[in-house]
Prior knowledge:
The protein is mainly alpha-helical. Helix 3 packs across helix 7 (136-147). It starts with 9 loop residues before the first helix and ends with a helix. 55% of the residues lie in helices and 2% in strands. Among the domains are: 71-147, tRNA uridine 5-carboxymethylaminomethyl modification enzyme MnmG/GidA (Arc Repressor Mutant, subunit A, Orthogonal Bundle); 168-219, DNA polymerase, domain 1 (Orthogonal Bundle), CATH 1.10.150. It is elongated and about 70 Å long. The protein is built from eleven helices and two strands, in the order H-H-H-E-H-E-H-H-H-H-H-H-H.
Amino acid sequence: MPMLRRDQAYIGVLIDDLINKGVDEPYRMFTSRAEYRILLRQDNADFRLTALSHELGLASETRYAAVMRKQEAVEALSSFCSETKLKPETANDYLVSIGSTPLSESKHISDLVARPEISLSEILQIVPRGTNSYSEEVITSVEVAIKYAGYIEREKLQAEKNNRLEYIRIPAGFDFDEIHALSIECRQKLKRYKPETIAQASRISGVSPADISVLLVYFGR
C-alpha cells in the first residue's frame, strides 16, 4: 500500500503528525502545519494524487485521462512561455496601462509573468499568435508555477533532502539512553514515540536539528 508523504498530500502531514506528535495541540489539524505548503497547492492536487488514486483503482480511466490531458496542456503552455519573446512594441502599451516598467528589449513571456502585477491571461491576449485554446485552469497552474518558481524549487530540494532520511532506519527497541550526546528531552521523546526512521524522529517536537545530527552520525548517514 503506497504511503502519502508530507510533500505529497495534506493527509500525509495530518497522519504523520498525529502518530509522531500526538493530539495535545489541536492546531496540528490545520494545513498551516505543513512545511511544504507551496508544493501542496490547490491547483496541483490533481497532478499530485490522481495517478496514485488511479493505480489504487479509485480514479476512473476517464478522470485519469482528463488529468493527463491537462498536464500535457500545462507543459505545452509552460514551454511556450519560456521560449516565446515579446517585443517592446507588442508589450509596452499593456505594461504602461498597468503601471509596470516598459521593455527596452524583447523579453520571454515567463520573465514578464514573474512580475507580481502581470497576469498571464492578459499577456496571452496580446501574443501575436493565438493561445485561446488553453483553459483558465491550465493558465492559472502555469502562472502560479512561474511566479513562485524559486520558492517551489527550494521546497522540492528540501523535500528531497528530508525524504532521504526516511531510508535511514532506527532499529526496533533501540535504547536511546545509549547515545549520551542527545539532549535529555530528545531521549525522552524518542523513547515515548519510538520513531522508525531518522525522518520521523526529526518531526517530533523537542528533537532539535543538533539531535538529528547526532543520530545521523550514530546510525551512519
